[in-house]
């Protein structure tokens, strides 16, 4: 969180100068750098959490305390051997997110709004596909240290062989966490807009006219910051859920051996939710 806070401060100073000069190329690169940095932070947490949960699943005595060897080892692997895979997947998403933001900013003018709307919809679909791939690929990266493409291919093949493709598409955990992050981002956005309204000279350096432009800019920037920070925190919960699903698909026997009570509860809930699917 300290890294995220520091980077956000530096980024906001850079984006302020770029918005003032209306340099589209610099603004695009700044958006890429912002999304890429936070994507790397979030996915590092994702891979670290996956490795920790995997250790708890297979070797529970190594993950039985707050700062256990499972956390240290998983974090070291995420920031060394697996860091290239984390950066690659994060960059793909960051470029698409930056393009979406540029299209959204361009739609504020009256020119080609329909075309820009179509472009933004296409980019949103591409972003969903890449994020879906990343979500499961990074579980295998954290568990086994596979490369980015290999990990994604293996985990998708696992779900297909089990017939669980419906289950992973029906997973509501990420949607709930996303709704929470959006709610927090909206609250922070409203606070930022209120501060800008109370201090109209606060954003004068952006070269914006007083009124709606300042309010919209304050809301968007504050919303982006709030959403990003909350998403980083919620990513721990989401990563743990995804890892448990993968481990339950691959090694239910180890779960029964190491955590019999939780395994019985999981199997009972599973039979109730998806009685037609075997474990």
TrEMBL record:
Record family assignment: Belongs to the CTL (choline transporter-like) family.
Compartments, record wording: Cell membrane; Membrane
Positions of transmembrane segments: 6-31, 38-59, 79-100, 176-198, 218-249
Coiled coil (UniProt feature): none
MF (Gene Ontology): transmembrane transporter activity
Provenance organism: Pseudo-nitzschia australis
GO cellular component term, pick one: plasma membrane
Name of the protein described by the UniProt record: Choline transporter-like protein
